[in-house]
Amino acid sequence: MNRDPLIPMIGVVTKIRVDTPDVKTFRVVGLDGKKPFVHIPGQCAMLSIPGVGEALFSITSSPTVEEYLEFSIKKCGCVTSWLHAMDEGQQITIRGPYGNGFPVDTDFAGKDLLFVAGGIGLAPLHSVVNYCRHYRSRYGSIDIVYGSRSKEDLVDFQEILDEWCREDGINVHLTIDRAQPEWDGHVGFVPNYVKELGFDTSKTVVMCGPPIMIKFTLAGLMELGFDKKHIYTTMELKMKCGLGKCGRCNIGSKYVCKDGPVFRFDQLDALPDEY
Amino acid sequence: MQVNGEFQPTIVAFCCNWCSYAGADLSGTNRLQYPANVKIIRIPCSCRLNPLFILRAFQRGADGVILCGCHPGDCHYTTGNYYARRRMTLLFSMLDYLGIEKERTRVEWVSAAEGGKFAATMNDFVAAVTKLGPNRRLEDLRCSKD
Amino acid sequence: MKKLPLSKIDELFKALSAGQKLYIPADDAAGQAKFTVWQEGLALSQKLNTVRSAKDLFFPQVENLVGFKVTGKQIELIESRDPAEPFVLFGVRACDARSFDILDKVFLAEPADTYYKARRENGVVVTMACTRPAETCFCTVFGIDPTEPAGDVSCWMDGESLYWQANTEKGEKLTAGLSMLEDSGEEAVRAQQEKTREILGKLPLKDLNLKGFDGEHMMELFQSPKWASLSESCLGCGTCTFVCPTCQCYDIEEFNTGSEVKRFRCWDSCMYSDFTKMSAGQPRPTQLERFRQRFMHKLVYFPTNNDGMYGCVGCGRCLQKCPISMNIAKVIKTLGEDKK
Amino acid sequence: MQQGLKEKAIQLLKDKTVDRVVGWKAGEFFYDLTPAVFHTPEEIEKDFVFSVFSGANLSKYLIAESRKGGKVAAFLKPCDTYSFQQLLKEHRILRENVYVVGVQCDGTCDIEKIKAAGCDGVTAVREEGDGLVAETLYGEHRMSKKDALLDRCAVCKSHKLVVYDELLGEQGEEQDAGRFAEVEKLERMTPEERYSFWRGELSRCIRCNACRNVCPACSCEKCIFDNPDSGARNKAAADSFEENMFHIIRAFHVASRCTDCGECSRVCPQHIPLHLLNRKFIKDIDELYGEYQAGADMDTKPPLMDFTKGDADPSVVYERGGDKA
Q1: Of the residues A98, A121, A138, which one is the last residue of a structural domain?
Q2: Scanning A53, A243, D14, D33, which has the fewest C-beta atoms within 10 Å of its C-beta?
Q3: CB D29: neighbour CB atoms within 10 A?
């Protein structure tokens, strides 16, 4: 078969983990039992169930995981609902990887990193964090600010507690929106928490979360004196092809699927705000 | 559908829950025979039948589509079948206008007591559609018929 | 250059259609010109251009990508690509010929679209010079010379003869098999070009000014308040998109036939409300944003990404077909006013 | 005529009866008029045009315009007033926010017909007596206006303005110009002939949705053909079945509400005679349920939302039809 980039390969969902009431993490391998393809942190893949639809998801697992790809997916539309309803062993289709990914080996190298995530926004950052942990010596300090609506809505909570929090040189700051009896950590919204923590402006920031969180966190970081050139985020728009051809995911002259999804805020400033 | 080289039409019968579906039931309990290629779809009232359903049935392989509802005046919801009557009249006329054989579509009023009429209607309709042959003018070539 | 008396044109068509499909512009029963597979008796349309553009032959409106058979938890891929067959596309105007270059930029960019690529490789483009441009024509604005069309072979036609000039290796190869063509001088063609160029100089839209439509002015153009009045009566239909030779956006859809799920792609339009609609939100909520996208793409985004090449060829189809007569010429003029 | 409309528009703006006017705006050529909203007398002076090319029916724009606050004036031709009244009846237009100026019309022209008559490269058209003179890049060309009329205007159903706040020109009358002749011609054909006629026409469809989007009766917030949950969404006809389905359902959804304004056929880029589908429904309704003209009044019920106990059975279709003969 003369394989077109639009033709997917068959993948098998070997493991489904329930993260939160509306987020599940899916482990995907190829029919040969191996990882479908190699990727860079921040890149995405098209998953589909024939007859239901195809959608783009960021790859949650780190490239350093050799055996499989993982996707943390929040239930919100047609495809995601179907994914949430399926059982382990289900075959799906997968194609990718798409997008530019984070400059983990170039711009990030040697830098102190600050990750800011809200809710399911942790999914794309999860891949970067674990990549940086794997090559720990290449990076400076790592700070992670992660917030969600409630304790139950914190994605990968167990991994964060068991691994991230215990590692030297990684500072994890968790917060939830409203106080809960069994929560003794910080309570409040992410943007305010970032401001309260008052980070050093030499840090490189990687942000992902709901638009409202991005907006206010960015404003807070500006107040603290950060430079937009050192703040990264990852975008999401409707996509069909993933190859920069179907024409719908553009922000100005840039295609999110090809030129993104990772953008610096100084790059976004030079583009129309149609997202 | 071809069975032993002979054409056997696929018929979709939309039956109103209150009269015709019960009528079909009665014809069954009375052991009256009608061809097995009639596929019954139960609808709450004949006026539930969206014209799209009829076209969809043809797309998905039906060679004839029949709507069975309560006799005018007997609708469980008082007036549903009156509306259905006007809609189907216009739709069938439009199909005819587009050159699609009008004998492929039909409406019959069958009450819950008319098991005999139900079987007779189906026998008659199947015979009429068999004579016409397979649906070619309103078929979707992508859909397999067998 | 070669030539052929018009009385022998059927002989040419017959030779061209031996061994491959030959498409020529022909009028259908309702008098609408479209590229049609030639067969004995089919006459060349006298119309300036086809209603649908020539892009159909390389990028059809609907095209099967792949099929899936789903059984329980298993999925099986089914090859459903239409085989690529060689064909000759005769009578393409200079504007449509340029549109192929624009489509190439999108579809042949890495990773190349293999469906499009296969058709491009299999197609030989024979162009036809214009002699009677319409008032809606403005290809010259984009540096296209309609009297000297590109393509694998260029043709000219006057009352008596067809002139034939191979431009590429593919064109030479096609020409080699055509024994009815005789050698000819270029005088008749040059004279005809001269005459046509006189008309070109009188075209009402020949002076459309594209100054300032570039990446540098992206934000300024995007934020122009004039988009509101330009787009206010837009119906949000896809006419302009679908008759456009350079519009290339597509959607990927599925159809369940009962025994298999067919995945196909079809033309899509940025004018449609569901083009960018996600379950999570809609970045282009009103017709203003959608309308702006179409023209920003052709006049700003595309040239920004492709060394200044505009995504319009001035064929004038949208000028003729828009239900409310809003079109790219009006957009260029209205937005361009600011830059005088 | 145009001067009268301009003066009226300027007066309405100046005396603050309205704060904007919906009309037709001049284009690049003499024929490519665009529906537009005018806010100032200067804009009217500069760009407002009313001519034989003011074919666009402005009534559908009033659905949105009447909800934008303030008051809007609209110029409606007789056939447009039917669409307007039908929309009023369906509670789609807020009547109190619209000032309707009715304008009499003696037919609008189809530029494509003019071009097809041999006037390619046309740069101007002027009326001379009963005829039109087209100036083209290739010389002058004469034709009768009758040959240049839009199909719908050639068989105009009514010069009556059924609703207006003010009338410019004279009130007209309903008339019978034989608009069903073409439908009858098709009815007389055999089913085979009809089938091949419609296949030929509908196979040209490019599914641009212009017919739907321009139609004053198609005013759903979300069309079933765009709605993934409807089970009927399709963006392009992947099979001839889908071409048929779209056009049957489109016509059916406006049956008994369609005023026969003819916009669908006017805008079709492929010249598919879509009005012949709508007119078939109108003709059937007239014959089976009594004469009915959508938009003619505010009181009557559309025939598909009504019934009588003695209505004909669907089997009537088998007995009718010219091919019986």
Answers
A1: A98
A2: D14
A3: 20
pLDDT averaged per 10 residues in sequence order, chain C, 340 residues: 93 93 93 93 92 94 94 92 91 96 94 94 96 94 95 94 95 93 92 94 92 90 94 94 96 91 94 88 91 95 94 95 94 81
Residue in chain B lying closest to C258 (CA): B143
Question: Do residue B61 and residue C258 have CB atoms under 8 angstroms apart?
Answer: yes
Number of DSSP helices (H) and strands (E) in chain B, helices first: 4, 6
Q: What is the 3-state secondary structure (H, E, C) of D141-176?
A: EEEEHHHHECHHHHCCCECCCCCCCEEECCCCCECC
In a domain, D153, yes or no: no
d(CA D151, CA B109): 42
Domain count, chain A: 2
Residue A238 with chain C: CB contacts under 8 Å: 275-278
pTM value is 0.93
Q: Is D118 on the interface with C (CB under 8 A)?
A: no
| Co-location of C40 and C146 in the same domain | yes
Task: Flag whether A266 is in a domain.
Answer: no
Neighbours of chain C (3+ CB pairs under 8 A): A, B, D
Q: C22 and C148: one domain?
A: yes
Split at pLDDT 50, 70, 90, the class of D324 is very low
Q: Domain check: are C54 and C180 in the same one?
A: yes
Distances in whole angstroms, Cα of residue C110 to Cα of each of A230, C107, C251: 29, 8, 19
Residue C267 sits at the chain D interface (C-beta within 8 Å): yes
* Architecture (CATH level 2) of domain B7-132: 3-Layer(aba) Sandwich (3.40)
- ipTM of the modeled complex: 0.92
Which structural domain, as residue segments, surrounds residue C233? Answer: 215-339
The last residue of one of the domains, among C133, C166, C200, is C200
Closest residue in D to B107 (Cα) is D314
Compute CA distances C111 → A243, C166, C255, whole Å.
7, 31, 26
- pLDDT tens for each residue of D68-84: 999 999 999 999 999 99
Q: Which CATH number does the domain housing residue A188 bear?
A: 3.40.50.80
Shortest distance between the Cα of C259 and any Cα of chain B, in A, equals: 7
Q: How far is D279 from chain B (nearest CA, A)?
A: 11
Best of B66, B87, B97 to disrupt the D interface by mutation (most D CBs within 10 Å)? B97
Laid out side by side, the sheet with C182-183 consists of C33-37, C21-27, C87-92, C123-128, C153-157, C161-166, C2-5, C182-183
